[in-house]
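Why does this matter for the project? Reviewers at the last site visit asked to see concrete outputs rather than summary tables. In response, this paragraph embeds two records directly. Each consists of the residue sequence and, immediately after it, the corresponding structure tokens. Nothing has been edited or filtered.
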Amino acid sequence: MKILFAASEIYPLIKTGGLADVAGALPLALRNKGHDVKLIMPAYQGILEKVDPILRSINLGNPFGVGDLRILETRIKENNTPIWLLQCQALYERDFGPYVDQNGQDFADNHLRFCALSWAAAKLVVDTSISEWQADILHLNDWQTGFAAAYLASWKLPHPPIVTTVHNLRYNGSFDMHKFADTQISYDLLTMHGMEFYGRFSGLKAGLVYADAITTVSPTYAREILTPEYGDGLDGVLNAMSDKLTGILNGVDYQQWNPAKDEHIAQTYDSNTLDNKNANKQALLQENKLNQDTSQLLFGVVSRLTEQKGLDLVLQALPEFLDTGVKFVLLGSGDKYLEEGFLALEKRYPQQVAIRLGYDEAYSHRLQAGVDVLLIPSRFEPCGLTQLYALKYGTLPLVRQTGGLADTVFEIGNTANGFHFEEANKEALSACMWRAMEAYRQTDKWKQRQLNAMQYDHSWESVTDNWQDLYQSLISKD
């Protein structure tokens, strides 16, 4: 099969979250199964340094009046994956990241920036004058590429089946109606049954309504988003299209996340040498100048600091545990009041708490290998990747039962590999943390949980068959 995979971020070129990990790993896994996959993404500032020399440049003209759009055909250096980069200096060559400015505010022209990306993806699957390579499947990801489905519906041209994957429904890519004229999408689509969304227009809704199949990144999240609690205003739309909705768990790239060969950690280990994990705990404590006693439980967090991730609950619950001598390390950034709250906790417990604001890929590996328990108390979590990484590292996830966390972390029975709680409040989280502390004292049972965690295969190779089956079913219908 020939698959065009469109995304706004792709690891290792650029990453702000789990979308980049998926967009980097799933196409590679599909290519390893023999499929012909190409990527399309904007040529953000600095991206050209991370790809091979440009093979071909194709001028698509100036459809949005902001400068010529160019398709640059090349390959990602690290894994040789073919990629089309959409170049437009006015839209993409900016500092501070793909979506926001130096103040953390969305770029005012984000609608135009990602309409251009979507437009280019749509053109590539219908215009043979751009490329002789023609996709059998167009795979869109989140709102930033959802507009492509609207362009194809607007143009009324034959096109391949469209799959839209929702990585996080809350980010719906909705914009003020006065900006709609900029998109050059037919006004016929601007209805409540089309891409109109509560008096605005939405890239994600377009991607849902005009797709042939909708996927989310876990089976539980696929069920949750059909409810008002998790549907973020789109539950009605999704219920109307539930026959084309399915949940497929994300995989893990075990070339990147594997304690047996991780170059970022102090001591490699696997399930047969699990005792070596303690050297990573020691190294993490030392790196952060914390008390070197490794007998006390070490909690950790790698996350965006937002209420969605339940980090306000962690901030409320931690002091009673720190007073018993446990330790805590955090890597992340986000809401200022949470950043300030965790920094205040570090100041109050300098020998037990280490806070590192921002994101550091190598340090996130060291943290995963070094902590005993990774806290992921999300109010909702479409899939979650950090708990999948933690499982491989024998680090026990402590999670709220929601989305992909509920599908992958179990506290009871022979498959127990972590800890979970149900209600999103401080009391439920604290009770679960106390259970983890009690379990930590039972050395043999703790080690069995670690071994259970490490034996699960969450590789992309293990889930690729689900994607192959979905694509093939759509091609067969077409």
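We now turn to the second protein, recorded in exactly the same manner.
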Amino acid sequence: MAKSQSSDRRTIELLGNRIEFGVRQSSDATKPRIDVDIHGVTVTVPDSADVQPTKVLRENAAWVIEKQRGFEKYREEIPDRTFETGESFPLLGTDRELVIEPARSHTITNTSIRLRKSTVEQSTVKRVLENVYRREARDHFAERADYYAEQMGVEYEKIEIRNQRTKWGSCSTTGTISLNWRLMMAPPEVVDYVVVHELAHLREKNHDDEFWSLVAEYDPEYEAHAEWLNENSARLIFTEDDL
């Protein structure tokens, strides 16, 4: 494993904006690299090179500012959820009222998500609600994957329910389809797009013309569905703490 270490956070002024950033030295890096994500700005520099991180940032100032503003806008779009009775949570694109009540089990109706009160009291509303979403995801994703796998003439090994920060799905070389449980908050046609996308990788590994032609065959509106995910991904975050 390559050795690496991170320094304390620093600050720099770029184009009139005060930016906080971190520096990471890596024996794997062959040239400086700037990473900007929801958590901030990091400059990775090679161990052996005499590189000034501030110089690298100034040379790419406009790009850094643009990327950071994009993530700031993303953070602002994350719903301010309270996880209290009466709040609405989307399930397959339909807002449903959160109800906490004495009951034998958690149930879902066309208009509500109903959590068993005793289970919530032993945990937290957020944790119990996430478990309900994961349970629903396991059943729904498997049903949709089975349907499209038969249509597409492919076989997958298994479905894994994940919570990737930056991915909605992935397909391993062994045929395991990993899908993000938070997709259960998206409309069903968007879920189907991600399922088709990952199953298509069982026939076409790369995102080439053949791959997208295959996706389009089973989801003619895939571009609109991909755009919905791009524009609404912040709405599928439970809280900012999950980032």
